[in-house]
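[agent] plan:
  1. take the single chain provided in the ticket
  2. run structure prediction with default settings
  3. attach structure tokens to the ticket
  4. add a short note for the reviewer (M.T.)
[agent] executing step 1
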Amino acid sequence: MALHDLPTKMVSQNGVVLRHYGIEMATFTGAIGTGGKWLLDKIVGGIAATGINPNFLTFLGLLVNFGAAAFFAVGGFRTGAIIIFCAGFLDMLDGQVARRQGRVTAFGAFYDSTLDRYADMALYMGLLVYYSVSGRTPYVVLAAVATAGSVMVSYARARAESLIPLCKVGFMERPERLVLLIIGGLFNRMGPVLWVIAVVSTITVIHRIIFTWQETKAGRTLPGIKLSL
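[agent] step 2 finished; step 3 output follows
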């Protein structure tokens, strides 16, 4: 009988036991996903039950990022990376708590986005301080370019979406940037990470400029917008 005729059995070949790991891994990862969702749901429910304002969680996330920036400024990259991870958890909670409490508002979205920009700037400012004090001028310039690229990715989308319905093209969004900073901090490879952020952020901005030009030229703008390029 052929191997594919035994989907639920182990097959021994040259002393090596082969199993159908695909099914087992799917079941395992599914269990992890279900368990994680259950745990997050309990945490969100518990916090929502306190009646805490979701905007306070957003502000708390900003303060935590300030702490990460302070560690970056003194070269504590690993500690800073761990703190960024914790701040990301808070950033995930505020929206879910708002939905659970029925307190989702347009201002809440604006407030969250605005404080996210401050959090991003704080992290890069910490790196700028560290490289400046260390006398590493090339890395100061690199961190500055990465900062500008990160800000412009968000600005390009916000400005574009005042003209067209959606502009999410490109790769280097905020979650990707934060993951890269965490990796750079944990493995003490912040220099290469800043290069990636600086280059890919710039490419993303250019992509969004071209995309917005194409959309406006094709007339796919928001109602009331009549612009031609």
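[agent] step 4 note for reviewer: Strands lie at 11-13, 16-18.
[agent] ticket updated
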